Amino acid sequence: MRERQRRKCLGAIGLLVAMFTVMSGMMAWALDVSDIRPEWTEAGKKLALQRAQWPTKEKRVVVPAGWFTMGSDKKVDRKAYRPEMPQRQVFLDAFEIDAYEVTALEYLRFVVDTGRPPLPDWKFDGGNFQESMAHHPVMHVSWYEADAYCQWAYASQFWEIGHIRAGP
Asked: Disulfide-capable partner of 99 in 18, 24, 56, 59 (CB 3.0 to 4.6 Å)?
Protein backbone atom coordinates (compact mmCIF):
# COMPACT_ATOMS: atom_id res chain seq x y z
CA MET A 1 0.00 0.00 0.00
CA ARG A 2 2.77 2.44 0.94
CA GLU A 3 4.68 1.67 -2.24
CA ARG A 4 1.60 2.53 -4.26
CA GLN A 5 1.17 5.90 -2.49
CA ARG A 6 4.87 6.62 -2.93
CA ARG A 7 4.63 5.95 -6.67
CA LYS A 8 1.54 8.17 -6.97
CA CYS A 9 3.32 10.94 -5.11
CA LEU A 10 6.45 10.62 -7.26
CA GLY A 11 4.29 10.55 -10.39
CA ALA A 12 2.49 13.72 -9.29
CA ILE A 13 5.80 15.43 -8.52
CA GLY A 14 7.18 14.37 -11.91
CA LEU A 15 4.08 15.72 -13.62
CA LEU A 16 4.38 19.03 -11.76
CA VAL A 17 8.06 19.35 -12.69
CA ALA A 18 7.26 18.63 -16.34
CA MET A 19 4.39 21.15 -16.32
CA PHE A 20 6.59 23.76 -14.64
CA THR A 21 9.33 23.23 -17.24
CA VAL A 22 6.88 23.57 -20.13
CA MET A 23 5.17 26.62 -18.58
CA SER A 24 8.53 28.31 -17.90
CA GLY A 25 9.49 27.89 -21.52
CA MET A 26 6.14 29.23 -22.68
CA MET A 27 6.37 32.23 -20.35
CA ALA A 28 9.89 33.04 -21.52
CA TRP A 29 8.62 32.91 -25.09
CA ALA A 30 5.55 35.00 -24.25
CA LEU A 31 7.62 37.62 -22.42
CA ASP A 32 10.06 38.06 -25.28
CA VAL A 33 9.04 41.46 -26.59
CA SER A 34 11.97 41.97 -28.92
CA ASP A 35 9.88 40.86 -31.88
CA ILE A 36 7.01 43.30 -31.30
CA ARG A 37 9.08 46.47 -31.71
CA PRO A 38 8.19 47.79 -35.17
CA GLU A 39 10.94 48.96 -37.47
CA TRP A 40 10.92 51.76 -39.97
CA THR A 41 10.33 50.97 -43.60
CA GLU A 42 11.76 53.39 -46.16
CA ALA A 43 8.27 54.78 -46.81
CA GLY A 44 7.68 54.96 -43.06
CA LYS A 45 10.85 56.99 -42.50
CA LYS A 46 9.86 59.37 -45.27
CA LEU A 47 6.38 59.79 -43.77
CA ALA A 48 7.83 60.31 -40.28
CA LEU A 49 10.10 63.09 -41.58
CA GLN A 50 7.08 64.76 -43.22
CA ARG A 51 4.95 64.43 -40.08
CA ALA A 52 7.74 65.84 -37.91
CA GLN A 53 7.24 69.13 -39.80
CA TRP A 54 3.55 69.38 -38.89
CA PRO A 55 2.65 72.20 -36.49
CA THR A 56 2.14 71.23 -32.87
CA LYS A 57 -0.16 72.71 -30.27
CA GLU A 58 2.60 73.46 -27.80
CA LYS A 59 1.61 75.82 -25.02
CA ARG A 60 3.54 76.70 -21.90
CA VAL A 61 2.13 78.18 -18.72
CA VAL A 62 3.84 79.99 -15.88
CA VAL A 63 3.37 78.58 -12.41
CA PRO A 64 3.84 81.51 -10.01
CA ALA A 65 6.23 81.35 -7.09
CA GLY A 66 4.69 80.27 -3.82
CA TRP A 67 4.32 77.75 -1.04
CA PHE A 68 2.88 74.31 -1.49
CA THR A 69 2.32 71.30 0.74
CA MET A 70 4.79 68.52 -0.04
CA GLY A 71 4.61 65.01 1.34
CA SER A 72 1.97 62.91 3.03
CA ASP A 73 0.24 62.94 6.37
CA LYS A 74 0.28 59.44 7.89
CA LYS A 75 -3.09 60.11 9.54
CA VAL A 76 -4.71 60.76 6.17
CA ASP A 77 -2.70 58.47 3.90
CA ARG A 78 -1.98 55.25 5.76
CA LYS A 79 -0.26 53.75 2.72
CA ALA A 80 2.26 56.59 2.39
CA TYR A 81 5.89 55.61 2.06
CA ARG A 82 8.52 56.86 4.52
CA PRO A 83 10.27 59.18 2.04
CA GLU A 84 6.94 61.02 1.63
CA MET A 85 6.94 62.11 5.25
CA PRO A 86 6.74 64.38 7.03
CA GLN A 87 4.26 66.63 5.33
CA ARG A 88 5.80 70.08 5.06
CA GLN A 89 5.53 73.47 3.39
CA VAL A 90 8.03 74.09 0.58
CA PHE A 91 8.62 77.31 -1.36
CA LEU A 92 9.07 77.06 -5.12
CA ASP A 93 10.33 79.77 -7.44
CA ALA A 94 8.19 80.54 -10.48
CA PHE A 95 8.66 78.13 -13.38
CA GLU A 96 7.25 77.28 -16.79
CA ILE A 97 5.71 73.94 -17.68
CA ASP A 98 3.93 72.55 -20.72
CA ALA A 99 0.18 73.00 -20.43
CA TYR A 100 -0.52 69.64 -22.06
CA GLU A 101 0.96 66.16 -22.16
CA VAL A 102 3.60 65.33 -24.76
CA THR A 103 1.80 64.34 -27.95
CA ALA A 104 2.67 61.57 -30.39
CA LEU A 105 3.72 64.26 -32.88
CA GLU A 106 6.07 65.96 -30.40
CA TYR A 107 7.56 62.61 -29.44
CA LEU A 108 7.97 61.73 -33.13
CA ARG A 109 10.23 64.78 -33.53
CA PHE A 110 12.43 63.38 -30.75
CA VAL A 111 12.44 59.89 -32.32
CA VAL A 112 13.37 61.25 -35.75
CA ASP A 113 16.02 63.64 -34.38
CA THR A 114 17.74 60.99 -32.24
CA GLY A 115 17.40 58.06 -34.67
CA ARG A 116 15.39 55.91 -32.27
CA PRO A 117 13.12 53.08 -33.44
CA PRO A 118 9.35 53.64 -33.54
CA LEU A 119 7.28 52.91 -30.44
CA PRO A 120 5.57 49.49 -30.06
CA ASP A 121 2.12 50.83 -30.95
CA TRP A 122 3.33 52.71 -34.04
CA LYS A 123 2.40 49.91 -36.42
CA PHE A 124 0.88 51.98 -39.20
CA ASP A 125 2.38 53.29 -42.42
CA GLY A 126 5.80 51.67 -41.99
CA GLY A 127 6.30 52.39 -38.29
CA ASN A 128 4.14 55.44 -37.64
CA PHE A 129 1.20 56.28 -35.39
CA GLN A 130 -2.28 56.69 -36.82
CA GLU A 131 -2.71 60.17 -38.25
CA SER A 132 -5.75 60.78 -36.02
CA MET A 133 -3.52 60.26 -32.95
CA ALA A 134 -1.01 63.02 -33.79
CA HIS A 135 -2.25 65.41 -31.09
CA HIS A 136 -3.10 62.74 -28.51
CA PRO A 137 -0.73 62.03 -25.60
CA VAL A 138 2.08 59.66 -26.54
CA MET A 139 1.70 56.16 -25.07
CA HIS A 140 3.92 53.19 -24.20
CA VAL A 141 6.96 55.27 -23.25
CA SER A 142 9.20 53.89 -20.52
CA TRP A 143 10.60 56.05 -17.73
CA TYR A 144 14.01 55.95 -19.45
CA GLU A 145 12.54 57.03 -22.79
CA ALA A 146 10.63 59.84 -21.06
CA ASP A 147 13.81 60.97 -19.33
CA ALA A 148 15.72 60.95 -22.63
CA TYR A 149 12.89 62.96 -24.23
CA CYS A 150 13.01 65.56 -21.43
CA GLN A 151 16.77 65.97 -21.79
CA TRP A 152 16.43 66.30 -25.55
CA ALA A 153 13.54 68.80 -25.28
CA TYR A 154 15.45 70.87 -22.71
CA ALA A 155 18.57 70.99 -24.90
CA SER A 156 16.48 71.73 -28.02
CA GLN A 157 14.75 74.62 -26.26
CA PHE A 158 18.04 76.36 -25.52
CA TRP A 159 19.40 75.68 -29.01
CA GLU A 160 16.30 77.34 -30.50
CA ILE A 161 16.63 80.36 -28.19
CA GLY A 162 20.32 80.75 -29.12
CA HIS A 163 19.53 80.32 -32.82
CA ILE A 164 16.76 82.95 -32.68
CA ARG A 165 18.98 85.46 -30.82
CA ALA A 166 21.94 84.89 -33.14
CA GLY A 167 19.80 85.28 -36.22
CA PRO A 168 20.04 83.36 -39.49
From this structure: 59
